[in-house]
Amino acid sequence: MVQPPDPAFGEAVCAALRGQVEKLGLSIGPEPVWAAASFAEAVDPFSQEASVVATWRGGARFGKASFFPDGRVFAEYQVLLPSPTDAGRYIDSVQVWGDAGKLRGEAIAAEYAK
To answer: pTM score, two decimals?
Structure first.
């Protein structure tokens, strides 16, 4: 069985994802919920590094966080809400990366299909 990352770090990643959405003036409610994540091991084909991947499925949105052996994380979570500043775009997802000492992030916007 795969050993999940430290729950405090997992909760911090979830809070950082929500925080990126809140910076835009939007809300995805309590999502993602750390306790709802499923875990698997993934091996990088180049570095052969094994990481733990947390996945959220089955709710309104999909998300994934890769926890690397050196303490880094990269996480992405769907938002799928209209952009609060541009009527022709929507916020597709938010991303968070870094380590337990500092998490940074950004929102990914996309244009509506014409």
So the answer is: 0.92
